[in-house]
Every structure is written in C-alpha cells, then in structure tokens.
C-alpha cells in the first residue's frame, strides 16, 4: 500500500513538471507580422528581436535596406516589422553614369525619391518598370535649359536634350558659316543655364558710283579788270564705279576697304579767265590839300585802319561812304586802294557837298578848309 501511494505521488510530480514546461514554451512563441517590399506575411517565432524575427522568416537586413523598427528592437506577440530592401539604380544621365541606392519598387518611384523631374520621353524605360533586387540600369536624356544669342539678336531660351553646343546648333538650324564663331566651343557639353553666343561675320563686295571732281583751268585775261573773273565752261564731274570689300560683324560694319575703281565718265574741266587789267589811275590834279588832310586824319598813312576798325585809308573813309562814291571800283577796302584812287573818291565826296570838306569836320577846321 505504501509502495502504491509513493508511485502515484511520483507520477503526479512528473506530470506537474511537464505541464509547467509546456506553458513556458507556449508563452515564448509570438505571432509577428512582417511586411517585405510591400508584401505582408505573418509568422510565429521564438525570436526576441526584430533581426531574429526577420531571420525566422528568411530575411536579413542589409546596409542599403530600411527596417522599422530597428533590428535590435525587442519583439512581442503582435509586433509589426517593415523591411524595404535596397536596390541599385544605375542612371545614364546625358552620357554620364551615376549610381543610387533606393528602396523604391518602380523606376518612377525611385526618380521621385531622388527628386528628379524627368518626362516620360526622356527615359529609356517606362516609368512603371519594376526595380529587381539585383538592380536596374536606365538611360535618362534630361532636358537642359540654355540661352542662345545669335548674331547679336535677342536672347532665346531653349530646353534641349542635345549633348554639346555643336549638336544643339545643328538641331536648331543654327549652323556656323565660314567666318562665324561661337562661344563656348562646339564640343562644350551643355548644362543648365549655359549662355551660347554666336558671332556672325560676313565679308562681301559692294559697288557704288562716285563723283570724280573736275579740275579748274585758269588763264589771265588782260581785257578784264583785276578782281573780275569770267567762266567760259562750267565743268562737269566725272563718274567712276568703286568696289569695296565690306566686313560686318553681327550686321554692324567693322571694315570698308576700297579695292578697285573704274572710270565710267571722264570729268570735263572748268575754264576760267581772271582779269589782270589794272584800273586807270585817276587824274586828281594837285594833291597838296589832300596830303595835308591825310596828315591830320591818319598821320599820312594811306594804308591805315582805325583802332575801332570802322575807318580806312589816309582819309579815313567808312565802308558805306567808300562804296557810295565809287570806291568799290578800285578796291574792296579804302586802305587797299592807291593814294590817287582814295583822293579821287574824296573829290567826289567833296564836290557832292558843294565843294566843302565837312565830311572831315575836325581836320578841315584845323586846316582852315571850307566847311
């Protein structure tokens, strides 16, 4: 009886131990939700951390992956884990290669994540192309905004997918001619904001008619009074055809060089006769009184001009008086005429005043001449 009782007690103790261990194991098993690249799955795991739970599901977070929460975070029953695996995106951008890691699942999402605005027609693959774990390579022909000034004209802004200055000019029909130049050079790679200046240089020939001056042929004519001229033939200018080399830069002339001239019509000379006949010296008779008057008026200097420039010659004529009494027949100015010519004009002036010398009031009074 005692033996049977002892056996029963031992069986009960073993059962208690087994039941206790099973409860502990059940308590360590957890239900965890794992979302990998947008796909959700549920697992049960004894793992205590996010890294362990991922390993239970066959995943391991790499250097370019994103895990939330972090891999060392403790997990509990009902925990959620999100794993976004990195993918290498190789971008061929306008002939240059760049690499970028992304957790995006499609090309379009990756470009948006990278902050790149690219039109559909600038990509070698569709925007919804999936990015596999092994990575993806895509060519991007991205437009660049450049500025062009052609031949000094207004600035143009262009969005272009061309690669070099030369490519762009060819595409836009802005080819350079022989003497043209462009800054920067044709092989310069395009980039946003680049200013391209085209200088248009032209060398052309121009012709125009030019007048050939006629020469003047002069001869003396002893029958004409001194100072008079007669034109027998007016003269006619000739005409020549002149050729110039003209250089323009952006439409503005910078050089004009005469290279030839061809005479079309010869000029005809002007023929002129110049009088050489001296005026006759008037007979003024006795000049003693006039010489005395000139001595008083001008100290006897027949070529003098007064300090104020109004009176001329030995008898100090004003120009109006000189011309009024025929002095212009002898000379333009009284002081240019001879003594005899000046006296001849003075005699006319005296006689016009009734034989009085009142045109020279001061000196006539000094000399006792009638006034």
UniProtKB/TrEMBL annotation:
Q: Which Pfam families match?
A: DUF348 (PF03990), G5 (PF07501), Transglycosylas (PF06737)
According to the UniProt entry, its GO molecular function terms are: hydrolase activity
Q: Does the keyword Signal apply?
A: yes
Q: What is its EC number?
A: 3.-.-.-
* Keywords (A to Z) from UniProt: Hydrolase, Signal
Belongs to which family? Belongs to the transglycosylase family. Rpf subfamily.
This protein is called: Resuscitation-promoting factor Rpf2
- Protein species of origin: Actinoalloteichus hoggarensis
